[in-house]
Amino acid sequence: METKNKDILIIGAGLAGIEASLLCARAGRKVYLLEKEPYFGGSAIKSEEVFPLMECATCMLAPKQSDVLENKNIELLTLSELQEVQGEAGNFTARIKKQARYVSLENCIGCGACFEPCPVEIDNNFEEGLSKRKAIYIACAGALPNAPAIDMNYCLRKKGEDCQACKQSCMFDAILYDDKDREITVNVGAIIVATGFKLGDASQYTNYGYKKFKNVLSAFEFERLRASNGPTTGIIQTKDGSPPDSIALIHCVGRKEKGYCSQVCCLYLTKFAHYAFDKIPGVKVYQFYKELSIPGKENEHFYKEIQKKGINSIRAENIEIIEADSGLQINYQNGNNKNGSIAVDMVVLAPPIEPHPETRNIARILNIELDQFGFLKTQPFNPVESNRAGIYIAGCAREPNFMQEAVVQAQDAAGQALNITED
């Protein structure tokens, strides 16, 4: 009988990937934790607080991130992408491309002295374009690993200029202009896919005016406004810098077109209402919804407590947002088929949760199935098992999930990965 390889590859270092990695590593297994970005933590690190108890998201996740960095059984591979997988359960061979960071993780102390001298300035995608970053950057304050990366797509050296601004500002010889991409091959017994999700592009639903009107925001934009490490250090403000007197929260953007409920939107918009009431005295909050999904006892209690603070709830169809002299105007048809309109200073949209852009490519490389919506498909009586033995799915890679569910699925996937690699 062939001996099984006991190492485990985990693709995606967000909340689910971190949880699965720690469980496998604590069981004595070698774990390769693969992450495409130069930082890890996934979408969870964009949040300021986590419902329903409104716990500090950083306080929840940072200790787990530190555990990953300190655990000798975990090899964190940032800026890395899966290229090829061969073999079968118990004996997979994975080929990985690791992109150059151009900054030494060993030498860099994360002081940030290299940022200011860099002459390049571009939109910070992590901050949803609400702030700028340099060609050498860290996604946000507190991102881990606490060392920047150089984005060679924008660095002047890529354009043939001999710019050495960041290198000259570094006292620790951490800048590595001669760093190279490299290929890594690992042998593992099981694979866990935890590649997460993306929010749908709300601009495709033109009636909401997203990207057309300046104070129509998508969910992560509002989340980053509230974040203490975000572009406004937690101050909720309109594009002209003033606090909004009124905010509208729009549920179910794109749900009809997508054909599924994203499950978590009703509660994160309730969290946004809490943010508004907490940070802006006297603010008026409206929520426009078609249906409400508030599963679970704690979630129901949380929703009702925020409702008591004075949310104006309007059941609405055929919503259209236009600019008005006073800011934004929401035209709608209510539950009685009567037309109405409300003027507000800010609108926050809840677009659909969609598969991560790399999901289809990951499915192709791993030879696993997608469901009708483009998420990774799992088995009817095993919600974390793919159609290929030894490959498991956790978190929003399989469907929209609450954070608590993503953690439970990661634990399940880790347990099954440990089990299948036992001799």
Write out the strand line-up for the largest beta sheet, numbering strands in chain order. Answer: 15-21-16-17-18-19-20
How far apart the termini lie comes to 9 Å
Helix share, percent = 10-25%
Count, helices: 9
As a percent range, the share of strand residues is 25-35%
Unreliable stretches covering 5 or more consecutive residues: none
Give the helices and strands, then pairings.
Elements: E1 8-11, H1 15-26, E2 31-34, E3 49-50, E4 55-56, H2 57-70, E5 74-77, E6 80-88, E7 91-98, E8 122-123, E9 132-133, E10 136-137, E11 149-150, H3 165-169, E12 182-188, E13 190-193, E14 197-199, E15 216-218, H4 219-226, E16 246-250, H5 255-258, H6 265-279, E17 284-289, H7 297-307, E18 312-324, E19 327-334, E20 339-344, E21 346-349, E22 353-355, H8 359-366, E23 391-393, H9 403-420
Parallel strand pairs: 1-2, 1-13, 2-5, 13-23, 15-21, 16-17, 16-21, 17-18
Antiparallel strand pairs: 3-4, 6-7, 7-12, 8-9, 10-11, 14-22, 18-19, 19-20
Which short descriptors sum up this protein?
423 residues; alpha/beta; seven-stranded mixed β-sheet; 25% strand; globular
